[in-house]
UniProtKB/TrEMBL annotation, chains A, B:
Pfam families cross-referenced by the UniProt entry: Flavodoxin_2 (PF02525)
Flavodoxin-like fold domain location: 1-205
Gene Ontology terms: cellular component: cytosol
Family annotation (InterPro entries): Flavodoxin_fold, Flavoprotein-like_sf, NAD(P)H_dehydrogenase_qn
Keyword tags: Oxidoreductase
Key word Oxidoreductase present: yes
Protein name per UniProt: Flavodoxin family protein
Gene Ontology molecular function, alphabetical: NAD(P)H dehydrogenase (quinone) activity
Keyword presence, rRNA-binding: no
Length: 261, 261
């Protein structure tokens, strides 16, 4: 299969990139074709601005959804964005590898999402009716593909546990896993998270690498996180709220959007 | 009082910036001193990289916490970052104004956090002992100041409600309000969130502006979100998990970190 890895650490010798390379090695050993986009190495432009939309008349306000939709439809997005979109369409799986900075992804990776995820490509796809609210959350242009996060974290695991002070890791990652990956259609695999990344010694690296290799060997077999599909009956349209028949009314928050809850 | 506003929309005529200016006008009318940092206007650099740490020997790995801590301590952070830090120290309140892109802030604002929030400035502050785990989550260099988000959102409010498909807005904002603002000490005010931003007409803008003016008139009187202080007894040190005596054991997730829960 074809796998796209996007990584976002400024140091080529970082733990994030070392683990990325462990993943690549295993995937290639298993016969997959792997493409790496190292956002720092390609000097990725992080900011959405007018330069992204050369067809937008200077007199016209920059409304990002409209401008990106028109540029996507007319093929006038920038070359870096068009290439990234092509690679996402070609790949059967996407892995995002990054250090957790301030409880989210580094700016350069957020900027990759902000720019590559054009209207008409990753959102604003599909028809709206009484029974469908566009192709999103389990449907969309990237449906049928798999995605996974590889995250290195400075802090302790317990600080990110169910009652840990930072908030549970699965909730901190929900805006990415559900909002960025499941939204345009990806099946999202459980994340691979490494804690106390700055303190890892060689033994720790070997153990972690073997865990990661095992995950990579099963990347096309593993069961995805059971996020609820938008148009499969669990949500009222157009309010897009969970139906009482689907999820008991006392359940709220991120967890209610997983079918196992 | 002294108020710092940081805004992050690429169009000077956007709703985000129009609302920012409504806030500025009211705050100035009330006698406050307001400084605006428009990240697009100043061409803010979003990416943390080696250029941020000129004192780091080329042969040395870039470990961001260590490098930023050394640069902060030795006064060798870049001028844009040092100026931003000075302004945060001078201000009594901080307002971040931005459009919600992919359930988080635009990359340029994330890059402002990533770069300005150096080790020793916003984290890595204070002593660790049996009774304290550094000055964070309610303590820290920015303690005693207030902060607030002004967020424009394309989607519908119900989609961001307690059972809305995107997840509740207060949970989507938790990594920012708790993880970015409360962490270095800010008292965090409830966010000002505008939905269906792309569809707002003049009447809607007037109503919204008046709501915002009212919020600005009370910015130093309003009750902050009651996030739990780290070192006030609710958490076990060093595991940093909620004590059963503080919060019943069946409560997990973001909400458990608000004292009202």
């Amino acid at each position: 299969m074809n796998i796209q890895i996007v990584s976002a650490h400024p140091d080529p010798n970082s733990l994030t990139n070392a683990l990325r390379d462990v993943a690549v090695e295993q995937l290639r050993a298993d016969g997959h074709i792997v493409r790496i986009t190292d956002l720092y190495a390609v000097n990725w432009k992080s900011e959405v601005d007018r330069e992204d939309f050369s067809a937008l008349p200077p007199s016209q306000r920059l409304r990002v959804p409209a401008a990106s939709g028109e540029a996507f439809a007319s093929g006038t997005l920038t070359e870096d964005v068009k290439l990234a979109q092509e690679r996402l369409l070609e790949a059967d799986a996407l892995i995002l590898a990054f250090p957790l900075w301030w409880f989210s992804m580094p700016a350069i990776l957020k900027g990759w999402i902000d720019r590559v995820y054009a209207y008409g490509f990753a959102y604003g796809v599909g028809e709206h009716s009484d029974t469908r609210w566009g192709d999103r959350y389990g449907e969309g242009r990237l449906a049928g593909k798999r995605a996974m996060l590889l995250v290195t974290v400075g802090g302790w695991a317990s600080h990110y546990g169910p009652r840990g002070i930072n908030g549970p890791m699965e909730d901190l990652l929900f805006p990415i896993q559900h909002g960025v990956l499941f939204y345009p259609g990806y099946d999202v695999l459980p994340p691979f998270v490494v804690y106390r990344a700055d303190r890892m010694d060689e033994t720790g690296f070997e153990v972690t690498s073997e865990d990661l290799r095992e995950r990579m060997r099963n990347v096309f077999n593993e069961t995805p996180i059971p996020f609820r599909q938008q148009n499969a009956g669990d949500y009222v349209i157009p309010a897009m709220e969970l139906r009482p028949e689907a999820v008991p009314v006392h359940l709220t928050g991120f967890a209610a959007h997983r079918a196992s809850e």
